[in-house]
Amino acid sequence: MNIVVLAGGTSTEREISIVSGTQICIALRGRGHRAVLVDIYSGDRRLMEGERFPEAYDVEEAAAYIRGFDQAIRENYDPSRPFFGPGVLELCQSADIVFMALHGSNGEDGKVQAVFDLLRIPYTGSGPLGSAMAMDKGISKQLFRQSGLPTPEGFVLRKEEKDRSLESRSLCLPCVVKPCCGGSSVGVSIAHTREEYEKALDDAFSYEDELVVERYIRGREFSVGVVDGEAYPIIELEPIQGFYDYHNKYAAGSTIETCPAKLSDSLTGQMQEYACLAYRILRLEKYARIDFMMDEKEEIYCLEANTLPGMTPTSLLPQEAAALGMSFGDLCEKLIQVSLSDYKKTGAQV
């Protein structure tokens, strides 16, 4: 198949997206597909001027080409220009499917998915509605609560609000502060004192104008992949220091990751059931990853859903697939087949 692996973009997770996209593209080409790696924001004029899906293709060179735009995007980002780079939509329309390796805003929040739906471009991952609801942690928490899915108590705080107090919202320290629509734990802090709370707010507000503040759950952290409505083996995350923040997610050796997690059969079943419930509540499709905390009383709390989770051989979802005997390439292939079968069911052009 001719496949566009779409990565990059302008979010704070641009580099993580490029890493995911590179590994996906390598895996797909290793399985005989003519996959190309493309930055959604900058495009690749070389592909538009030459063969779009060449048989001979250097993925690492393509990744280096994409990174060549990093400084210009950081220093000269123009929010008034069209988000799609030159030729990107045309290239995607000529592909059999687009593999979404985007992370963060303008990629994981449903906007790109909505454009693709209107243009009848098949892609991997959830549609616009599920992507948007999962991206907004405030909306996710509200829907979880309304549906009876346990989630930490919390509230949404907007930058213009003068009253930032926890007491007026029946919450106490310690608490977790995080941007409402961020990912990869960027801007997330745990506050144990009032001074740490104020600092955490200022830090998170530097990323977004809307935050989620929630009760801190002391205990064990887990993640559960859901593919085509089926829960995968649970993975436990044990940071050597601190919590599972941006550093501990991506720095080698900073977190012990155990899959399958060492849990009783009943707790395993309950957490997987909660993962599938969250998947349905948020109207997710094809695949996602759901994050959980379990406190010292073995009470399970759903934190959030990730509609486009990290995709390198050592990322969480691929580790869960490996526990089922699937290679990274097998997983990439499965996500494509699940997505294409869904398009055929709905009558979309493929």
TrEMBL record:
Catalytic-site annotation from UniProt: 13, 184, 315
Matches recorded under InterPro entries: ATP-grasp, ATP_grasp_subdomain_1, D-Ala_lig_Van_CS, D_ala_D_ala, Dala_Dala_lig_C, Dala_Dala_lig_N, PreATP-grasp_dom_sf
GO cellular component: cytoplasm
Known EC number: 6.3.2.4
Names of required cofactors: Mg(2+); Mn(2+)
Cofactor note: Binds 2 magnesium or manganese ions per subunit.
Catalytic activity: 2 D-alanine + ATP = D-alanyl-D-alanine + ADP + phosphate + H(+)
Name of the protein in question: D-alanine--D-alanine ligase
GN (gene name): ddl
